[in-house]
Design goal:
single chain; alpha+beta; Nuclear Transport Factor 2, Chain: A; five-stranded antiparallel sheet; two-stranded antiparallel ribbon; 7 strands
């Protein structure tokens, strides 16, 4: 390291300063250092199409988020959310998908089957945490697709029949005394569907 350092006299000729050989300050006759050399870095304009100086701050922020939003407008991976599933949820969804895959070709591609998938991946996933519950999907050419959940702990059963015509769900509840209750709602009626699932394990 010592051989890379050069001892050069300063202006007062009294003290010494050390500098790297690649960066030696040379004092000219006028006593002034030469002008700095231009940087080798190439400046690139930002990807965003505007700067603060182009307009006021509010316009710049709005324009910036517009361009950033465009750049990040990428179709999400449909499988990306699976890493956040708990083991019971993953097991439940795998069972429902397996049952749907075993249906006839006409039923697998029917609107009722798609409605069942939406239900299972949405509010229906709460069935994974019902104690002693067993779930299965059935289908026939006349009645469409039905998801049946039975709890061995409460001896209650809830069936969700998916109507392909109007995207409604018919809920059939059978209690431990074999009493039957029936009602219908849309798939967007999350509270009604959640109550039917909660009733399955209530006493």
């Amino acid at each position: 390291m010592a051989e890379l350092l050069t001892r050069t006299p300063n202006i007062a000729e009294r003290l010494s300063q050390y500098s790297d050989q690649s960066f030696v300050v040379v004092i000219g006759p006028s006593g002034a250092a030469p002008p700095p050399q231009p940087s080798r870095r190439v400046w690139k304009s930002p990807a965003v199409g505007a700067t603060v100086s182009d307009s006021n701050a509010a316009d710049w922020v709005a324009r910036t988020f517009h361009y950033v939003g465009k750049a990040q407008d990428v179709e999400p991976d449909p499988d990306a959310g699976r890493i956040f599933l708990s083991p019971p949820e993953a097991q439940f969804l795998n069972q429902i998908r397996k049952d749907l895959d075993e249906l006839s070709e006409s039923l697998r591609s029917s609107p009722g089957a798609e409605l069942c998938r939406r239900f299972a991946e949405g509010v229906g996933i709460a069935l994974a945490f019902v104690a002693g519950a067993r779930c299965a999907v059935f289908g026939d050419e006349e009645d469409g697709v039905e998801l049946v959940a039975h709890s061995r702990a409460s001896m209650r059963q809830v069936s969700f029949e998916f109507n392909p015509k109007d995207s409604s769900i018919n809920i059939i509840s059978i209690d431990e005394e074999i009493r039957r209750f029936e009602r219908s709602c849309g798939i967007d009626k999350v509270r009604t569907l959640a109550e039917a699932i909660a009733w399955l394990s209530s006493r």
